[in-house]
Amino acid sequence: MRAAEARAELARRTPRSRSIAAERAEILNSGLAANLEMPHPIFIDRGEGPWVFDADGNRYLDTSVGFGLHILGHRHPEIEAAIKARTELGWMFGIHTVSQMKLATLLHEASPCAERVVFCNTGSEATMYAIRAARGWSGRERIALFDGCYHGAHDYGMWITDPGSPVDAPAKLPMGHGIPGALDDLVTWLPYRHPAAFDTIRRQAGELALVMVEGVQSSNPQPETGEFLTELAAVCREAGVLFAIDEVITGFRLAYGGAQERFGVVPDLATYGKVLGGGLPVGAVTGRADVMSVFTGLGAERGIFSGGTFSGNPLTMEAGAAAVDHLRAHPEIYARLDAAGDRLAAAVNGFCEDRQIPARMNQVGSMFHMFFQREPVNSMRDVRPDNAAAEKAFYLHALNRGVLVPGTQRAFLSAAHGDAEVDLLIEVFQDSLADVQAEGLFSGSGEGGEA
Ligand SMILES: Cc1ncc(COP(=O)(O)O)c(C=O)c1O
């Protein structure tokens, strides 16, 4: 089937979604939120396990699972029961509640670096507070982040790599307008998985408050990340610079103890979000007691401000505790997620090799991302734009066959994705790749064109 036919089929099946899109486009601005851009507009009505259902009642196998947060699938009964129980007692007080201690204790025990825990409401808040804490504690203002990592929507993290800059010395550009130019000077931009990053950290040792990196880049999920993290932690330690692992995605996903457990690396600070909230908004900073002491209040030595109306709210705390408690009680989930992810990637990559299709799935555990090129992607600097039309068509075909890949194209499996669902994913991805190839949309394999 050609991409245009897939689009027409989808359009026929989704009249309600299309009318919502048409009516709401102006007030929702959804067309402008790049990370939500879907191959075809659909509006989700409900979710169940690994499935979501759109406004027209069509069912899709979900590989977004709420930007990765529903590691147990949609409407997990234990999480739902915890939310219901909390709503019968009141769900927001703005004062400490018993619910906070449950999740704080679980996180303290799960996160290898967590001598102390502070809750907030999103992953963006968590990384913002980790940066502030490091600045307060060290008395330094400069931070170092890596090309290709994402740490949330606050101004300090809003950078992309200037594509013309050298690989070992990437230059950064603000991600969109509205980012004050003055911040440019406070952020060092490091090459990911490149030894030049270590030299820069050593050179700037006296200036840097913090080096932060994702546990595994969600844009570029790879199993061979441990050696790099271990060396990075050692370089930061030698240089006397605080080191943070952003576990917003990897926390409770790559392992119960996140990237820290999987790769055996203990940072000074770690940030959390997503899975930790059981599906409700959450963020957390964990870390060494002496560094975390800055959160004790403005009166503390080097104290920083932290707060937030909804921080630690009991509804999130109960949902998160139910999810994390379930994961703690079922460690076999991680082995199953790893095996499912490995099987999916092997089947898709084997198919691409057999058929000479220039595409490849990068995957670690239950995180995966398709790249549409023959060359391996070790860092996002290796990504080539040549096959944009093929990529777009692939996701359109997958959606038409009932597999939803999020607009960010960073995809996840959940514990609710059983063998049958993984089989379906493999079949749909293979068939969709074959369709794109047959239409000649891969560059160098035909006339190409707009999907
Ligand atoms: C690694 C990482 N850090 C931080 C964030 C920001 O989290 P949130 O969207 O909850 O603000 C994200 C979001 O995807 C993320 O992937």
Query: What is the name of the CATH superfamily of the largest domain?
Result: Type I PLP-dependent aspartate aminotransferase-like (Major domain)
CATH architecture of the largest domain: 3-Layer(aba) Sandwich
Secondary-structure-derived class = alpha/beta
Radius of gyration over C-alpha positions, nearest whole angstrom: 22 Å
CATH topology heading of the largest domain: Aspartate Aminotransferase, domain 2
How many extended strands? 16
Query: Alpha-carbon distance between the termini?
Result: 12 Å
Q: Identify the overall geometry.
A: globular
Write down the secondary-structure element order.
HHEEEHHEHEEEEHEHEHEEHHHEEHEEH
Please describe the biggest sheet, giving its number of strands, its sense, and whether it closes into a barrel. 7 strands, mixed
What is the typical, i.e. mean, pLDDT?
Answer: 94
Question: Residue share in helices?
Answer: 25-40%
Ligand catalogue: pyridoxal-5'-phosphate
